[in-house]
Amino acid sequence: MSEEKSAVPAWEQRFRAARVSLPDWAEDAPARALYVSNATGTYEVYAWDRATGTHRQVTDRPNGTTDAELSPDGDSVWWFDDHDGDEFGVWRRQPFAGGPDEEAVPGLAPSYSAGLALGRDGTVVVGRSTDEDGTTLHLRRPGAAEAVEIYRHDEYGGVGDLSYDSTLLAIDHTEHGDAMHSAIRVVRLSGGAGGAGVKTVETVETVAELDEVTGRDEPRGVACLGFAPVEGDTRLLVAHQRTGRWEPMIWDVATGAETALPLRDEQGRELPGDVSAQWRPGAEALLVEHEYEARSELFSYSLADGRLTRLDTPRGTVGGATARPDGTVEYLWSSAAEPSAVRSTAGTVVLRAPGAVPPGSVPVEDVWVDGPGGRVHALVQRPAGAGGGPFPTVFEIHGGPTHHDSDSFAAGPAAWLDHGFAVVRVNYRGSTGYGQAWTDALRERVGLIELEDIAAVREWAVASSLADPRRLVLTGGSWGGYLTLLGLGVQPESWALGVAAVPVADYPTAYADEMEALKSLDRTLFGGTPEEVPERFTASSPLTYVEQVRVPVYISAGVNDPRCPIRQIENYVERLEQLGKPHEVYRYDAGHGSLVVEERIKQLRLEIDFVRRHLNAQPDAQPDARPDGLGGDRGPA
After folding, report:
1. Within the chain, what is the greatest distance between any pair of CA atoms?
2. What is d(CA 378, CA 396) in angstroms, rounded to the nearest whole number?
3. Closest CA to 616 of 602, 627, 632, 633
4. Do 386 and 629 contact (CB within 8 A), yes or no?
5. To 5 degrees, how large is the angle CA 245–CA 246–CA 251?
6. Share of the chain above pLDDT 90, in %
7. Residue range 480-497: average pLDDT?
8. Are the C-beta atoms of 552 and 583 separated by less than 8 Å?
């Protein structure tokens, strides 16, 4: 290693090291693949010809690109073109081998994406979402000059999947008004282009409906996982919550027959936790993805005899998997201690990013704490070689809220560990992976429910001598940033500092400005709009409690963010200023986060610097007396 490289802190090396996503391959040309990498310093889309071993950068934009799909024949790359991270744009298309970009579906105005389906015969279905039109789906047949609208609804929905012969379309929708539990409608598409200069004629006929919400006391969600990849096959793989967790089943939309999948391991035990699946090529078996207690594993399921066979994956998290035509399975794997890699069940590394492998980090410990709504699962990391504590501790709160922290590699937590902090991540009520009841529990007491669980884990962390109560930092991004600001006001004596990235800060104003998909989710969470249930929005808004904030606050915000818009953050900052509360704000020219590596490093450097300065300023702090790195030479100046 050169002298220059060795001077780069390990935490920065983790961010700068090139990464690759799980490659997606063309259905009818499996040697052609697509992936996302930050090899240039910005996350962009790459085409990979596996037959020749050549890699080509497809997109090159200042703020990066991640949303892309391959056409089934592998001839073209579709990618979503928004403006500086605002998620509002159009689909563009580029030849796989390279060439100029063109607007993929001319005539469709910019919008938020609500899905895309590319048929093997050239049929295209584009999903759009706007504040004015709600959700609209548009179909363009091969040879047609324009796309025709085939679906419209005020509530949020999206493209599920096209059948193998492009005659059936599955639509995931929330027409019933419950954005946390979607329904499925399958329609038959018939018609086509009427010839040159003649308007396209298209008939859309509903074939089947699967709705587990309307008219039910306990709503259950269903979601499309994909049609069987066989000509004329009308079987749709579906995820459902009928048993209080996510499980797959097969639904024949032509006959209405539903086939349950009794997923039991080789010892006859039912798999706990959430289970998803995808078709293997030929549709005679499924690739099963099992998620339980912040970790995941893979199985193969034979439809002929119901046999479930575990695939050999290390303990950690599978961040995506795909079954190849040759029978192998490729998957993206990592753990908190080991960086991600694209592996194969054949025992090889499928795709390795160029350059050095990033430094590893510290394994996680599982902690279960009794909370007011049940046992709360937390993932804990202690700084390497720093003794037994108590440590300055970062509570890094995940976003979502329908998401969860897992035993997977993340450069952010690893950076805090390098600086001598313990890191605690809490899968509070609202998180996925612990059953539907746990996820649905935050309704109507939004934010406050999650903070109760975080408080229970905080109490454990202090009582166990993991965390120094004088040096507890509450931090997070997106929903985690929201919970940070809310926690500083609702639990003012619990935290020494708050660091919030792209947060909700003023909930009623956030609702007014955010993208339609999130408006729909908020109406579900709160039971109405700010006009209909103002007391709920007020009770859950950080701005309501800003006068009770007692500690310095750091906020970062993307000026083009459609999810946590800038105006509502400025309202909160203005109130901090009026009250004379210590705070710092960093605004950057992007959306809900950044795809530029140096920008991510800059943001974390500013956060670490803020925390070090303010923790060291406390009268009782003795940073040089403990091996925690506070006030020392490690990390940014």
Report:
1. 81
2. 11
3. 632
4. no
5. 130
6. 87
7. 98
8. yes
Distance, in Å, from the CA atom of 380 to the CA atom of 132, rounded to the nearest integer, reads 45
Determine the Cα–Cα distance for residues 174 and 114; give it in Å rounded to an integer: 13
**What would the mean pLDDT of 272-290 be, rounded to a whole number?**
96
Residue 620 has pLDDT above 80, yes or no: no
How far is it, in rounded angstroms, from Cα 105 to Cα 473?
A: 48
Average pLDDT rounded to a whole number, residues 167-194: 90
| Ramachandran class of 112: left when φ > 0, alpha when ψ lies in -120 to 50, beta otherwise | beta
Give the Å distances, CA to CA, from 252 to 161, 211, 264, 372, 456. 14, 15, 23, 42, 46
pLDDT of res. 633: 28
- Distance, in Å, from the CA atom of 418 to the CA atom of 408, rounded to the nearest integer, reads 17
pLDDT greater than 60 at residue 589? yes
State the alpha helices, DSSP H only, in 527-565. 534-539
C-alpha 501 chain-centroid distance:
16
* Three-state helix/strand/coil letters over 600-616: HHHHHHHHHHHHHHHHH
Burial class (CB in 10 A: 0-12, 13-18, 19+), 143: exposed
Banded model confidence at residue 617, pLDDT cuts 50, 70, 90: low
- Residue pointed to by tokens 């025992």: 347
User: 170 versus 619: which is more confidently predicted?
Assistant: 170
Beta strands in 502-591 (DSSP E): 553-558, 583-588
Nearest to 582 by CA among 555, 612, 603, 609: 555
Residue 193 has pLDDT above 90, yes or no: no
Place of tokens 């607007």: 103
Please tell me the distance from the alpha carbon of residue 404 to that of residue 432, in angstroms, as a whole number: 6
What DSSP string describes 78-125?
EEEEESTT--EEEEEEEETT----EESSTTPPPEEEEEEEE-TTS-EE
Residue 188 vs residue 443, higher pLDDT:
188
Please tell me what DSSP assigns to residue 586: E
Tokens standing for residue 436: 């539907």
pLDDT, one tens digit per residue, over 110-149 is: 999 999 999 999 999 999 999 999 999 999 999 898 999 9
Task: State the pLDDT at residue 201.
Answer: 64
Q: How far is CA 586 from CA 128, 502, 589, 606, in A?
A: 32, 10, 10, 9
Structure-block tokens of residue 458: 């905080």
Looking at this protein, which amino acid is placed at residue 255? Answer: T
**Percent of the chain predicted with pLDDT > 70:** 94
